[in-house]
């Protein structure tokens, strides 16, 4: 009888230890998955922000080019007008 009780206790302890190990492994896997998802989301957000910043920079560069061309054109027109007045 005593051996049977001891065997049941040992078996119960082994099942409990196994359950705790499985539970710990599941928590660890879940934590790793969550961490990986968070890193991926962060990378996507950073990438989106960088793309947006690049687009804004590109737009500002384009505007600066147009503005420079307009100033150059105005300078040329002014020079032509001065030439005409000089004639």
From TrEMBL:
Species this chain originates from: Sinanodonta woodiana (Chinese pond mussel)
Region (Disordered): 1-87
Name assigned to this protein: Uncharacterized protein
